[in-house]
Amino acid sequence: MPKHSTRPSAHSAASNGDLFPASDAEEPKSLTELNKIITAAKPMVPGGKKAVLGEGPAGAALAFVGEQPGDLEDLQGRPFVGPAGQLLDKALTAAGIDRKASYVTNAVKHFKHEERGKRRIHQKPTMGEVKRYRWWLLKELGFVHPRLVVALGATAAAALEGAPVAIGKSRGKYQFGDMPGFVTIHPSAMLRMPDHDARSQAFADFVRDLKAARKLAH
């Protein structure tokens, strides 16, 4: 099983100067301080306007990391409140996981999209964009300090790993550097499945993954 350091390299830090403090004295000392920095920073993806912060208690047993906020998340300022979030909530309930006792966030903190008329169309973040947000994510999880971090989809897994992760090959228990983790699909993947039977099977598999993650965390 691959094990990679989740600590950003000096090269990556230097290439993202506005993300990284010039001195240790400027580093955020708490999640509240980090969130203030994220909120005040300029979006680093096209279309992004305001940051959507993670939510949940520090010390949560489980932390769930998604790709990025969507349209409704951007409008409401909360993670996973749109269709994918509703599906996640349904699966969490089926798996016996209390969302309010868990921490939920995204690898990319702004909604990357392009406007087509009155519609805002989701755009997948590039690996370069994911890496620009990575320092924030790792600091965030460092403050929350979950027992297990669950990567929801390839973008989240890549953000945690610092390199692309193949979901099909890596699904299940996974070690993100020094963070115990678990890799599964993003709920939005099920929403894109046109076949009802395929969606039903995918949901059952997703719930099974969440149950396995819950067991590992406890």
UniProtKB/TrEMBL annotation:
CDD domains: UDG-F4_TTUDGA_SPO1dp_like. The keyword Lyase does not apply. Residues 53-211 form the Uracil-DNA glycosylase-like domain. GO terms for biological process: DNA repair. Keywords: 4Fe-4S, DNA damage, DNA repair, Hydrolase, Iron, Iron-sulfur, Metal-binding. Residues 1-27 are annotated as: Disordered. The keyword Zinc does not apply. Gene3D superfamilies: Uracil-DNA glycosylase-like domain. It comes from the Bacteria. Belongs to the uracil-DNA glycosylase (UDG) superfamily. Type 4 (UDGa) family. This is Type-4 uracil-DNA glycosylase.
